[in-house]
Amino acid sequence: MGSHALPRPVLRRRIRGALWALAAGVLGVGAALSTPPTAHAAESTLGAAAAQSGRYFGTAIAAGKLSDSTYTSIANREFNMVTAENEMKIDATEPQRGRFDFTAGDRVYNWAVQNGKRVRGHTLAWHSQQPGWMQSLSGSDLRQAMIDHINGVMSHYKGKIAQWDVVNEAFADGNSGARRDSNLQRTGNDWIEVAFRTARAADPSAKLCYNDYNIENWTWAKTQAVYNMVRDFKQRGVPIDCVGFQSHFNSGSPYNSNFRTTLQSFAALGVDVAITELDIQGASPTTYANVVNDCLAVSRCLGITVWGVRDTDSWRSGDTPLLFNGDGSKKPAYSAVLDALNGGSSGEPPADGGSGQIKNAASGRCLDVVNAGTADGTQVQLYDCHSGTNQQWTYTDAGEFRIYGNKCLDAGGTGNGTRIQIYSCWGGDNQKWRVNSDGTIVGVQSGLCLDAAGTGNGTPVQLYTCSYAANQRWTVS
Ligand code: G3I
Q1: Where are the beta strands (DSSP E) in 48-132?
Q2: CA-to-CA dists, residue 117 to 48, 65, 155, 209, 278, angstroms
């Protein structure tokens, strides 16, 4: 077997798809030929391409545009998750105190579900787009109004929403790391956790998200402030399931490659992550592909939503930040996103069920079971590559790396520094691994990367927050 970079399955899958297509042609359309489960042709729409890795690709939908057939045909064809751009916000759903109006929200919701799409709810507690009556409230009266609003909206959509943006944009821009000043913040610092606890009780079936912008760059104070809040919530049992990264990238808030570290770091706290309002000034295909690959690299990244369909539908149309031109044609960024979704995460055996070595890019040494031991708990290390059976790994359809037939590459924990061992295969997520196109191997349970802490013989292999450095990249040979 020759040496290959791990993205090989993508190429193989395309070759395989072509071979099966050829065979189908020879046998005729009606022949009883089924595509084997591991053979995927590249998908031709964003939603289907994202679904290959269990993710979704969504868009914001405006109720007022549902009568535009160019708009709805693109939206229906390409996306499988929908966010109401404005129609489920506070001013739309509770225009007068205690009088709820779901007319516009339901138009978006019904269009989505009638076309087989899921819905993200946006948004329940926010300083902006409050109706006049709420803007003028303060103190305990406003706190109660917030609680009543969450209960009113969530009970209407109970059991119907995949993820709710429970609290939106509660942190200040700039270097302070402080909460944003707002009437809600002035009701007391605990308003966010009260919103989340209220939301959990109102609809236990929805994932509950905190959603914000300018929290994509890991070095920014706002990012760290939200990270600290989520960590605190997880430690204290405040119900939070996900963090939404709006991802409105422009020259003042540009994409940075450390976004992947941000997604990974939040995921390591035990929450899902999602890209919720993506648009990129100028729509660089490379930047779009980078964002998609960042999501694909993080097993807890649920999916990506772009903030509108065509450039002309965008809240900042002058930036031409979306995937479709005003006439409905596809932009170069569209192709970049589709290609990334089709090739970004293999989810397939890198060795076709055959055995091979797994070589570390930094050291050139191989993943090796210490002293060729076979007992459960035997450590895995780096060692000079050789042909021994203690370096022959088989990637299974289930996502395991097996050795000696019935032992699996196993993480005995989920934190940084967890040592990697072999253990009898039992089907747990701590024995499943996602092989990514960038050469990283991510534990499905932990979301952390397979990492060599050094380069010499005997270096232990561990789990660690993904940095994408060479000590976390691997090739099979
Ligand atoms: O519908 C009225 C129309 O009747 C009126 O003539 C017109 C005059 O200005 O206003 C129209 O309403 C506008 C509405 O969008 C619908 O187009 C509002 O003025 C305008 O403020 C509103 O902007 C929305 C903005 O949120 C408000 O904060 C954008 O559409 C929407 O894309 C944007 O979305 C936000 C997310 O919710 C949160 N994250 C940031 C993101 C972008 O700002």
Answers
A1: 56-61, 81-84, 118-126
A2: 12, 17, 20, 19, 18
Question: How sure is the predictor about 41, in pLDDT bands with cuts at 50, 70 and 90?
Answer: low
Q: How far is the CA of 315 from the centre of ligand 1 (A)?
A: 7
pTM for the full predicted model: 0.70
Gyration radius (Cα) of the chain, Å: 24
Render pLDDT for 53-66 as a digit per residue (tens, 0 to 9). 999 999 999 999 99
Q: Cα of 305 to ligand 1 centre, how many Å?
A: 17
Q: How many CB atoms lie within 10 A of CB 119?
A: 26
* Any ligand 1 atom below 6 A from CB of 305: no
- How far, in Å, is the centroid of ligand 1 from the Cα of 403? 56
Q: Is the pLDDT of residue 187 over 80?
A: yes
Strand order in the sheet with 355-356: 355-356, 393-395, 401-403, 407-411, 420-424
Q: pLDDT band for position 14 (50/70/90)?
A: very low
Ligand 1 contacts CB of residue 317 (under 6 A): no
Under a CB-based contact definition with an 8 Å cutoff, are residues 348 and 363 in contact? no
b/e per residue 192-229 (b: at least 16 CB within 10 A): bbbbbbbbbebbeebbbbbbbbbbbbbebbbbebbbeb
pLDDT tops 60 at residue 380: yes
Cα–Cα–Cα angle for 83, 84, 88, rounded to 5 degrees: 120
Q: Which residues does 6 contact at the CB level (< 8 Å), separation at least 6?
A: 346, 350, 435, 436, 437, 439, 441, 474, 475, 476
Please choose from 212, 276, 315 the residue to mutate so as to test ligand 1's pocket, defined by most ligand atoms within 8 A of CB.
315
Residues classed as catalytic = 169, 277
* Cβ of 85 less than 6 Å from ligand 1: yes
- Ligand 1 pocket mutation pick from 61, 86, 108 by most atoms within 8 angstroms of CB: 86
212 lines ligand 1 (CB under 6 A): no
| DSSP, res 99 | B
pLDDT of residue 354: 63
Indicate if ligand 1 lies below 6 Å from the C-beta of 246.
Answer: yes
